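User: Reviewer 2 asked us to show a designed sequence for the structure in our supplementary figure. I'm pasting the structure tokens here. Could you produce the per-position amino acids so we can include them in the response letter?
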């Protein structure tokens, strides 16, 4: 009976675990829209998180730069033992005994002037924080562009795979028809062999198309940094054929907008201003440094003693009556004596308390040309930041020019490919009729068929290429990316 209960308990536990695993597996998202991919990546991408951490560090640097304006206050204390021959700190003489010593102090210091280095450091750190925030936007933009590219590549691969399946179905149907004609003696065996070879070719094309689709999905999965995704799918939006109208804007117009909006340009310009503050900070070391300091200190030593004068009453003879020694005259007096007492810790702490206030002026005269060299480095860093800004602008201009040229070429290619497809479609229909009537051989028919199918694939690729290039141009114009 007990065994039966254990058995049923085990079965129940097994099914409960199975249901939990099934529920967990069902909770894993497998179908993604482009916007869901973007939202997920912006929230979870490690590069974006790293950029956010850099911005947080820049914020901490601002707070520290502000705190450097506050006074510095530090306290210190120690308690020590001396054995054997040592100096009595209260009398400054050598003694040969154990001495316990304690010193306690509180020091304060505030910088009154240092060539405005502290103030300029605050301004520079604020600029560095702004640049770090722009870096976050740049990391997000890069991720969005990569996601759109990977997403469109999946859609393209799916369409090519569907087209390959249609081709295979057509070839298989044609093979069945040719086989029947061969059995009826209407066509030669060579026709059957050629159409079977075409079927095998179409099957290989499906495998290649499926591999391309799997690789495209893997690229998107890796961009999303997903660990456990099975049956990954994307939602296929309706991608309309590109507009054949002439693109109304040019690359220069897009660049004028982009250089005002793109965060990489903004970050580079901010770092130029930060480098200028770096020059001011370095030059501030040429000026004198004025600071105000204060110290509160006390000490204790077991060698220190406290003395107390004790008055002891005494009787002395001050004279004699009529010089008769038998009749002395007595006076009452006090005899002072010095008595050594212990000196408690807190009494010494209070009585030895000392206070100092100092005004310190430091004038740089010669320091191995460190200040001059630091200024030179800062000037070079500023020039480098200016050059980097131009490099960023030039790279942005090249990217836009390339995207515009690609979009224009893709537009022309799409139009030409569509006209080509119409021509090959008519040629294929004519070849199909003549092949069905036995007027042409399978080789000529397959040539017409393959030309038509290749034109279909070329049109699909031109369509997605043109769509992506237009999306890039929209992105540089600060337009939302959507499919």
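Assistant: Here is a per-position design you can include in the supplement:
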């Amino acid at each position: 009976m007990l065994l039966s209960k254990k058995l049923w308990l085990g079965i129940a536990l097994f099914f409960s675990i199975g249901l939990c695993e099934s529920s967990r597996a069902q909770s894993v998202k497998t179908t993604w829209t482009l916007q869901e991919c973007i939202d997920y990546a912006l929230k979870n991408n490690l590069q974006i998180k790293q950029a956010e951490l850099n911005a947080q560090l820049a914020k901490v640097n601002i707070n520290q730069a502000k705190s450097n304006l506050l006074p510095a206050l530090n306290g210190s204390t120690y308690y020590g033992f001396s054995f054997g021959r040592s100096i009595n700190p209260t009398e400054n003489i050598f003694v040969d005994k154990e001495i316990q010593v304690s010193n306690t102090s509180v020091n304060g210091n505030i910088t009154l002037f240092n060539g405005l280095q502290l103030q300029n450091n605050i301004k520079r750190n604020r600029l560095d924080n702004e640049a770090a925030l722009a870096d976050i936007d740049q990391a997000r933009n890069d991720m969005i562009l990569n996601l759109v590219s990977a997403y469109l590549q999946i859609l393209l691969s799916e369409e090519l795979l569907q087209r390959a399946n249609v081709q295979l179905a057509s070839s298989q149907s044609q093979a069945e028809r040719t086989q029947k004609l061969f059995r009826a003696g209407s066509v030669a065996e060579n026709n059957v062999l050629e159409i079977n070879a075409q079927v095998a070719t179409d099957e290989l094309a499906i495998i290649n198309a499926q591999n391309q689709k799997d690789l495209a999905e893997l690229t998107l999965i890796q961009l999303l940094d997903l660990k456990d995704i099975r049956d990954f799918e994307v939602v296929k939006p309706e991608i309309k054929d590109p507009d054949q109208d002439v693109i109304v804007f040019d690359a220069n117009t897009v660049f004028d907008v982009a250089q005002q909006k793109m965060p990489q340009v903004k970050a580079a310009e901010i770092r130029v201003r930060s480098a200028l503050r770096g020059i001011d900070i370095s030059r501030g070391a040429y000026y004198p440094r004025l600071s105000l300091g204060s110290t509160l200190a006390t000490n204790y030593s077991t060698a220190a003693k406290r003395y107390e004068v004790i008055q002891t009453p005494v009787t002395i003879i001050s004279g004699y009556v009529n010089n008769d020694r038998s009749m002395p005259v007595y006076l009452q007096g006090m005899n002072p004596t010095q008595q050594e007492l212990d000196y408690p810790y807190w009494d010494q702490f209070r009585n030895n308390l000392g206070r100092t206030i100092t005004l310190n002026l430091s004038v740089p005269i010669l320091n191995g040309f460190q200040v001059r060299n630091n200024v030179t480095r800062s000037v070079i860093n500023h020039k480098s930041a200016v050059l980097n800004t131009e490099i960023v602008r030039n790279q942005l201009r090249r990217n836009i020019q390339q995207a515009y040229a690609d979009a224009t070429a893709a537009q022309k290619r799409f139009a030409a490919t569509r006209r080509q497809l119409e021509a090959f479609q008519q040629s294929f229909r004519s070849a199909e009729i003549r092949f069905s009537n036995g007027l042409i051989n399978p080789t000529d028919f397959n040539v017409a068929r393959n030309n038509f199918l290749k034109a279909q694939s070329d049109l699909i690729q031109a369509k997605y290429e043109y769509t992506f290039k237009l999306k890039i141009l929209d992105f540089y114009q600060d337009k939302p990316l959507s499919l």
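For the response letter, you might also mention the following. The two ends are 65 Å apart (CA to CA). Residues 317 and 330 are 5 Å apart (CA to CA).
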